[in-house]
Amino acid sequence: MKNANISRKDFLRNSALGLAGLSLTPALVKGQSKVESGVLKNPKTTSRYTLKNVRLETGFVYEDGDVIATKTDLFSVVIANGKIESVGANKSDADSIDAKSMLMLPSFKDMHIHLDKTYYGDKWQAVRRKGGVKGMIALEQQMLPEMLKDSTYKAEKIIALLQSKGSAFARSHVNIEPTSRLQSLKNLQKALAHKEEGFGAELVAFPQHGVYYTDTVPFMKDAAQTDIDFIGGLDPYSIDGAIEKTVDFTVQLALDHNKGIDIHLHETGESGLKTVEYLIDKVNENPNLKGKTYLSHCFVLGKLDKSKQQEVAEKLAAAQIGIVSTIPFGWLIMPIPTLTKYGVEVMTGNDSIVDHWNTFGTGSVLYKANIAAQLYGQVSEFGLSRMLKLATAGPIPLDDNGAQQWPKAGDEANVILVDASCSAEVVSRMSPIESLIYKGNIVY
Question: What is the dihedral of CA 141, 146, 147, 151, to 10 degrees?
Fold first, then answer.
């Protein structure tokens, strides 16, 4: 077999680039990594290379004031030291990586997922319902010791799935409770270290079994002293029986350790609304938490009448509290258009992929954007292109006026190449993602 000593990493990269149709020419300019046997060798963040024939969006086409199409053109993009160094006129005859006229977009971000506990990579198991959230907590307490034995391996498998769907970043909630203590966090950190060249993450210390329902306080305090990014929470009223006590603990722990906050809130009744309003008050009292506080799910918003939704949306926006929304959630449709209209940051994620809570996760946040477009009637060129924000967690190529805002020199080189003509087509058709680059590293 020719070149039998090729590394597994090089083999996978070579195969992926071949499938993507990327053409690597035999020489790059001085200072770039060398191309050998069709493989761009170890394109670390210190390397420099050029992509030619890159399709980028440049503006909108209007008819009677409505956006009816998206303009694109071909460019050459230089990537160096993990960033986009320049975007310039296309040099189709240059010695560089040929993007084959594929559309470049920001890579995706899964902003609510549980990488630390999953069946993914193991045998199939359907969900076993055990009497509400507290029943599921009891089931999880039984299961965790066995799940922890190979949770690092399974986390790596999920990360690979996310990468294959165009995501190079995730916000992962990590169990912190008396059963696993900090072991789930340690196991996930190992997986992330193994994948760091092609994937990034921020972590939420998540008291899955309640802060006070089980004696989780000392373990949350230990977790807060690590390099996690957010202090999490779970349904303060229905699990811990006390909104103020639990939220106060969460807020103070975040303040003491300069962390953000991301609380799971499933409650749809009066307690859910009271939790939202109390958190808004606490953030307004502590402005350092503005822009660093999130409510995941927050299903109560979907149960409010329209005027109340608007009132709460205004308050969330003023406190700079974001919503990380599940799309969809059974019969409940969240008021995402209202939230975005009033300036609330809205993101999404897969939540569970395949675990004891849910088995419907696909690993694709583009799928979430597609479903959202259908739910909210975003069928126009303009509307579809705006829904891409849900997949990228923010940056999209054109602003609302059609001015090009991405990519720019200095942006991190976290990009995908897609077989599509424009963002609107990508969202509507869930177009094939052919290549992923993270911090300049060609993942596939």
Answer: 140
